[in-house]
Amino acid sequence: MLLSALTALFMALGYTLGGSGGAVIALLVAAGMNLFTFWNADKIVLSMHNAREVDAQSAPEFHGLVQALSQRAGLPMPRVYVIDQDAPNAFATGRNPENAAVAATTGLLNMLTRDEVAGVMAHELGHVKNRDTLIMTMVATIAGAISMLANFGLFFRGGNEENGHSNMIATLLAVIVAPFAAMIVQMAISRTREYGADQAGAEISGNPRALASALAKISGRAELIPNPVAERNPAAAQLYIVPVHVSELFSTHPATEKRIAALEEIAQDMGQMDGPPPMTMPAQTSMRASALSPVVPPVAAPKPRRSALDPHGR
């Protein structure tokens, strides 16, 4: 429905500006730009964040966690990246599950317990499973076409003489109303995708309260700790599991409190009134040590860490 609304908005704007050819040119250019982005989005995003790929040797705990979650989700193993950044956050990218990548910052890995990291990465795999990168690319294509068409409206006639609209109305619609409306619809689509990824992540990890606990921890810190990538490229904000430095009105994410409440309902629907047991994963070593340090010789198995949520979900 929201994609149809964007398409209808584009058609209405094209009709308002008339058949001068600007609409066709704008659509072709926007489609070409977004097609290039679609095929190269993962490379662009990962390079933007200076992400470094890790494997079972360089980050056995983190890599093994993602591998186990991928198996539970029935997904191909994505490439795994770590970003050397204090701001706690994570994202997924790639045009489809076969070409996906997931990334987490060192700030997130150092802050959260293992179960909470599992909840966050399950959320990102939920984006992959739901093919959100494909959906958001379609949205970006239409929204980009609307924005470019609005700019073209400044250089073309600004109105269709045949339909009798004045230049002033056409220009106002092109420059202000249409791009703003497209932004609102785009944010609405992005917010629905976050709820969908929370739902999928809860099902993949089997521990919705761990994801809720992680969201509560990182949401406040993500707004306080500077994120240089998001400051240079505000569009990157929609990638992250929690928003950065934006008001709720213009955020691409739902309010964290609403997401936590929805996760609590999911936990109750799953019959986890007192909170589920932690995920059963191999090796309960420190996420910080294994994700950020080189491999060390094997040692005796350490005592399992307590989750931030005790067995009673408190």
From TrEMBL:
Recorded hits in Gene3D superfamilies, A to Z, give: Metalloproteases ('zincins'), catalytic domain
Q: At which positions is Zn(2+) bound?
A: 123, 127, 194
Any one Gene Ontology molecular-function term assigned to this protein's record: zinc ion binding
Listed transmembrane segments:
134-156, 168-189
The record describes its membrane topology as: Multi-pass membrane protein
Free-text remark on how the cofactor is bound: Binds 1 zinc ion per subunit.
Its family remark reads:
Belongs to the peptidase M48B family.
- In Swiss-Prot or TrEMBL terms, this protein is called Protease HtpX homolog
